[in-house]
Amino acid sequence: MLQTVAIVLVALATLVGVAIFTRGAAAIAAQVRVGRPAAGRLTPVGRRAWTALAQILGHGHFRGRPVVRAAHWAVMLSFPLLFLTLVTGYGQLADPAFALPLLGHLPPWEWLTEAIAWLGLVGIVGLIAVRLRTQPRPADEPETARRSRFFGSTRWQAYVVEAVILAVVLCVLALRALEFAYYAGEPELARYATTVHFPLTAWLGETLTGSGQATLAGAITVVAAVKILVSVGWLAIVGLQPSMGVAWHRFLAVLNVYARREPGGGPALGPAQPLLAAGAPVTLETLEDLPEDATLGVGTLADFTWKGLLDFSTCTECGRCQDQCPAWHTGKPLSPKLFTLALRDHAAATAPFLRAAAAASPEQLSAATLAGRDGFTPHTGDVLGALAAVGATGPTGVAVGPTALVPDVVAPDVLWSCTMCGACVHQCPVDIEHVDHILDLRRHEVLMASAFPAELGQMFKKLETKGNPWGLAARKRLDWAKDLEFEVPVVGADVESAAEVDYLFWVGCAGALEDRAKKTTRAVAELLHTAGVSFAVLGDGESCTGDPARRAGNELLFQMLAAQNVETLTQAGARKIVVTCAHCFNTLAREYPQVGGHFEVVHHTQLLNRLVREGRLTPVAPPAAEARTVTYHDPCFLGRHNQVYAPPRELLDALPGTTAVEMPRSGETAMCCGGGGARVWMEEKIGTRVNVERAREAAATGATAVATACPFCTTMLSDGVAANGDEVEVLDVAQLLLAGVRRGRDT
Fold it and tell me: Can you tell me the distance from the alpha carbon of 90 to that of 342, in angstroms, rounded to the nearest whole number?
């Protein structure tokens, strides 16, 4: 009787659970298909498949959390490897001694099953403990609650998933113990009741021997039924919740990692992706050929690619991105996680309308419009609802446009708080491309809606008319070289071509026009001269690389500046370029190839480090009384975006009399200075200023100087130190090196 009830109950539950789960999977697939094409995201197949396999099995994105990484790895493996125990459970409903053919009593498989079950148990208990320890509590102050990476995550969904995993692995271990005891009481099966077949559960099974075969058989039936019901119940729950990313990521993460921007495994950082229209990059040449109704950037849900929509569905709500976001941790409304969840929920609510509208015939559209005018109230699934979602006539006869993502889904303050430091992308375990999505939203706001902070309008105008964000005359670009003890050759005046020198020195707008950055420029020039490295500059032939315009969303202004600079550099015969600005470095090296500019670009810390290693620059220690402690701040566009971490640190280590100390957030987890993403040109009115928080962290190390490798960082941190009233000097690494080299030269 027990077996009959269990079989009937499990059969019905399985049919319902699988049907609901299939319906949920179909809903997600249909939702993703609403997006535009994403060229190149599925090929090359071999390279992408290998990268995805290595990334998933190696858990490479669980950076800085070794315990969580190990626990999640064990839980992840338990999902596919214990699946066959679920299949075995169905057989055990009819026969307690059922075992899979071939594998059922194969010792290596039994060892693996038990090992993974125990590891899964330890792993899920550990993950539950982590969540309980770091979960915001109702009694927490708002600021305390915000510090939890689980703030804003859907709590009940995580608890359901964790409870299901815990129940399943406990059932697996309980079944193994019951099987041992049952086999021991059956003469023809007793040979299996040994530690060879039950290496990690025999001790538990021995406590159950002697319970009686009927009792053990009934227990096996009950536990197998519970295991199956829990599993198919989970299928039903997630099927009813297609937006339950904490569960669906088990399936979607594989595809999302496979379809990542970089097939070889790098994060979606470095160069910004080209602006696309009708699937093709928008350039100054193609702009005139665009249709009048072309959309630039992302303004509505349908403007996202399918990869973008897949990103939103894949989010696990783990909060690692939120935990690293400098905007969130200084009181801004931007949380990369909440940004993603808002778009995910909007996609789940809107995609059915978009699909219905796309599938509707002209007759249906006409009838729906007439029905609307008669006062018919649309609901989900109605063609009229679909029309309202995509911009047709609503029930009152008034045109209803598609939901504007900004400000209806994403608040402007959220969009413009981003510094594009890339910490969110770098930390995401499932390869969500937050920065690309924020940039696409900015592009639409700037190019289509003309909605952006007022400060950016002034900056755009200065870039367009003067070629620099300060609006200063081009003739001032060589003022930094005045009073140097050597001549700085200019291409076109002192040398005919940059090919005649070792490097073209790209000074950059800040390096040429901002007083603090000029000191870095002079230091680099003197160091190159001392090392015997020949170089030349473009002088007033330089113009802004366009990074501030592009990161602010003004792609067309970037295209104009980039095309002008590529032409200038090509005519100048530039082959190798050295830069001091991390943003110029990223733009020239990683983004200009998109517009036909291919140059060998090196950051000044890389070149200077090589010169020191070759003995062409020899720093000398200061007097003992002048020894200093220095902490290095990683520029985001040098570190996370381009993986240049070692050269600046090696330079500091090569300076006698200098002791380097690291900030708590350094290297891959370094906090932004607050100036990226064109934020250096915008007022920061919400929460604590990012640069003030970072300067406070630097001063807390006890260092007397903060070393930087980017003029934006120098400016932002100098202002932050001043705001805090700390007596900490902010210097570029080149300035510190120059002081040591001068001591050696004077000696």
Answer: 40
